[in-house]
UniProtKB/TrEMBL annotation:
Domain AAA+ ATPase residue range list: 48-237
Any matching Pfam family: AAA_23
Organism: Bradyrhizobium retamae
Keywords: ATP-binding, Cell membrane, Ion transport, Iron, Iron transport, Membrane, Nucleotide-binding, Transport
Biological processes annotated in GO: double-strand break repair; iron ion transport
InterPro entries assigned: AAA+_ATPase, ATPase_AAA_core, P-loop_NTPase, Rad50/SbcC_AAA, Siderophore_ABC-ATPase
Protein name according to UniProt: ATP-binding protein
Single Gene Ontology MF annotation: ATP hydrolysis activity
Length: 258
């Protein structure tokens, strides 16, 4: 039975322990997303730590995988929390997380229904909705949050600062797209606070070597052959960034002349 938001438990994260593909639930193997090399009949992903970070090139299926996990957790594939649907849902009609979730099975201990699925594309509508609700139904004696009074990155950090004290599963799809390099450092500190509390599970896809380097996280690289455990120094993202930092002018000149 899922645990409600009013019934916190004392078990530490991770709560989602494992997901796997049930081939009998796939109606068309040639249709997306089931044609992705990632989704072989033996696809399985275990979560052994509170923080799991997935890296890989565009088109390998990272976002689709996160969408599927989000739907399994009870969130909308376009982003948001349980029971929340983005103000403008039309842009997400082609998302495939819902289709994928129908073919996935999950093992929870226990199932947590609190948390959030962050997508940079939908965060503005999320913030606008929450600001409107705070104005309409104020709670407590303090001022309403007013996330839109901040920059995108500041609003994003403030939004999750308010939620990192709560037990739940938090799914981040490329959060660095909302953050400057300095703000990525602030996000690392936020992740540490969530990690130290012990009751937040984070599953994140990112292209940022800064976020990939979070200590003691499970770092997985997604390729056409599936998922494999890596270190941050083994990722192409880190290697490219290192080459750029070693010689910015030469790196850019060589890149644009190829």
């Amino acid at each position: 039975m899922p645990y409600s938001r009013n019934r916190p438990i004392n078990l530490p994260a991770p709560y989602l322990k494992r997901i796997w593909l049930e081939p009998s639930r796939i109606t068309d193997r040639e249709a997306y997303p089931f044609c992705l090399p990632l989704l072989r009949d033996d696809f399985e992903l275990s979560f052994n730590r509170a923080i799991t970070i997935i890296v890989g090139e565009n088109g390998t299926g990272k976002s689709t995988l996160l969408e599927g996990i989000a739907v399994l957790a009870g969130y909308d594939e376009a982003g948001g929390g349980k029971g929340y649907m983005t103000v403008d849902h039309s842009w997400a009609l082609e998302k495939m997380g819902g289709q994928l979730s129908k073919a996935l099975r999950a093992s929870w201990l226990p199932k947590i229904t609190n948390g959030w699925f962050f997508r940079a594309e939908s965060f503005f509508s999320v913030a606008r909705y929450l600001d409107e609700m705070a104005q309409k139904y104020p709670m407590g004696g303090g001022p309403p949050p007013n996330f839109l009074s901040h920059s995108h990155g500041e609003g994003f950090l403030r939004f999750f600062e308010e939620r990192c004290q709560r037990q739940g599963i938090f799914i981040f799809d490329e959060p660095e797209s909302a953050l400057s390099p300095a703000r990525q450092i602030e996000f690392l500190k936020l992740m540490r606070r969530m990690d130290q509390i012990g009751h937040c599970q984070i599953i994140m896809a990112t292209h940022s070597p800064v976020l990939m380097a979070y200590p003691n996280a499970t770092l997985l690289r997604l390729t056409k052959y599936g998922l494999e455990s890596v270190t941050v120094r083994e990722t192409d993202h880190y290697k490219v960034l290192r080459e750029f930092c070693d010689d910015p002018d030469g790196f850019v000149q060589a890149a644009i002349e190829e």
